[in-house]
Amino acid sequence: MAVQDLKEQIVRLPEQPGVYVWSNAAGDVLYVGKARSLRDRVRSYLGARGLSPRHDALLDEIGRLEVIVTDSVMEALALENNLIKQRMPRYNILLRDDKNYPYLQLTTSEAYPRILVARSVEKTGDFYAGPFLPAKIARRTMTLSHRLFGIRSCNEVITGRRGRPCLEYDIKRCIAPCVADICTEEQYGVAVTNTRLLLEGRNDELIDTLRDRMVAASSGERFEEAAQLRDAMRTVQILRDRQQKVATAQLGDRDVFGLKVGPSGGTIHVFAMRGGRVVERVELATDPGALAGGDVDVLQAALGQFYELRVPPAEINLPLEIEDSEAMEEWLSARAGRRVRILVPQRGDKRALVDLATRNAELAYRTRFNEITAAHFEALETLRAVLALPAIPRRIDCFDISTIQGSETVASMVVCEDGRLKRSEYKKFRIRGAAQDDFAAMREVVYRRYRKVLEDGGPFPDLILIDGGRGQLSAAYEALETIGLGNLVAVGIAKKEEVIFTRERPEPVVLPGHDPALLLIQRIRDEAHRFAITFHRKARSMRDLRSELDDVPGIGPRRRRALLRAFGSLAGVRRATREELESVVGAKTAAAVIDYFSRAS
């Protein structure tokens, strides 16, 4: 069923705000969107064919439509974000941060919070700071919070009724909230407040406080305490200087977004400014398979997903206007508990910072999606459309058989991921004696490979490429069906005609000679052939070496290795003089080698 078959349902939709959900016939969610008017927005899909290959793929796959009416656009926005996070639709823009820099987690959900290193932000009610670049700054900051404020590091359940504090109290790394007579809940709360001040980047206030405490300790002749406070103050100053990449006191607290969208996807660069300083930089990227309509769509998705787990600042600066900015402001304000404004600066320092974030996003795009990657993606997208695959073939396994008159039959498998050959996953196979014709050999190697994949639980390919025609393809499918993987998609490519055979179509698929998809398939096939030929030559060479030298009386594996190591090859052994051979294997064996090759010639 395609979207045109749902026309009667679409025209009866209400002209109210809400969320619409496209699913396929099996019930899998394909796309989730929001609308100010459900009827107008969903009806626009009826004329969307031809906008892009991804739009056409979505329209062909649509089998069901669900709508949820809401009272406002803001409610629709919140519901859309929740549904996208829960169902992970294939065609929605899903942003991810590939760099796994650490965060610091202040467990404010606990009565006596701790500070921990976290690799991701979870929606637990705790306070998160970061990510920290380099990662050692996170550890240094955590250590500083222990030494400076006495935040606990233990996993103990705090009741205040412990008999005596632990060693952490004695070495002045904890103020012992476990003993109520030493530290009350209110005193520990002050330490937590100061720690959060440190994590939020309000370091100038901390430096002033530390300086006053250092002077007071020095005046009271508590010189060890004063030295500790001096070292702590210096650490905070180093931390402040690292964060002060861009500083303008008038800019206050705000997040600044830069954006770059191209044919391969999109990148977003976010500067988080607190107290006029950039204290955090986050790079996000879209998956190539997302259904992106342009800059506005990517930016809108970025805002919703970025602030799903973050508290927004008072102001957010964007490079361009978004749809329903009032609804987005309302949603962000509800999450922050105060007013949040979305602005598009046109001039001055704010615009300069937006331009700086945009330049960083452009650099990230060039690094992530270069021209070669874009060409690979277009080739994979063409393959998906031509072969009617359910998704872009991100991983392709290719098999080739190499033999000469049934002698030393071997096979190779090469892997292509996202258009790039992945040599670390290449495999080679020796075909056993009972399977010496091409069809039987292909059946055996496909069976052996995917039985192992099935035992290991993956990785399963999106497409299997067979070097050969319909016979080899049928043999591959026989092996797949034997192990219950007949649902995997395999195609064959014939060498001379350069046409593609599929199981479903009686006629082969013919692509133009210059088509990027055909060129990609040929490159993968040729690499599998090269790898198989190289392995076959090595196998024959080892067989020849074994048969020649092993026939010499007195030559076993150890002496054979010694001869080959000394003279490099069988030809080198043939050319060696008696004296050279004697120096390696002794006079008796050297005489046997010379006698053997004299008779053989």
In short:
By secondary structure, this protein is of the alpha+beta class.
Structure description:
The protein has helices spanning 7-11, 38-43, 53-61, 73-87, 136-149, 167-170, 185-199, 203-219, 223-243, 295-306, 325-336, 348-368, 371-386, 438-456, 470-482, 516-550, 557-567, 570-575, 578-585, 587-600, and strands at residues 18-23, 29-35, 64-69, 95-96, 103-106, 115-118, 127-129, 254-262, 265-274, 277-286, 315-317, 341-343, 395-404, 407-417, 420-421, 427-430, 463-467, 490-493, 500-501. Helix 19 crosses helix 20. A hairpin with a 6-residue loop joins strand 18 (490-493) and strand 19 (500-501). It is 45% helix and 17% strand. The strands form four sheets. Strands 13, 14, 15, 16, 17, 18 and 19 form a seven-stranded mixed beta sheet that branches. It is flat and about 100 Å long. It contains 20 helices and 19 strands. The protein has 601 residues and is an alpha+beta fold.
- In the predicted model, the low-confidence regions spanning at least 5 consecutive residues are 244-250
Enumerate how many helices there are, as a single number.
Answer: 20
Structural class: alpha+beta
**Computed CA radius of gyration, to the nearest angstrom:** 34 Å
| Head-to-tail CA distance between termini | 75 Å
Tell me, what's the shape? flat
Helix content: 40-55%
Strands, count = 19
Strand content: 15-25%
- Give the averaged pLDDT, no decimals: 80
Major sheet size, sense and barrel closure: 7 strands, mixed
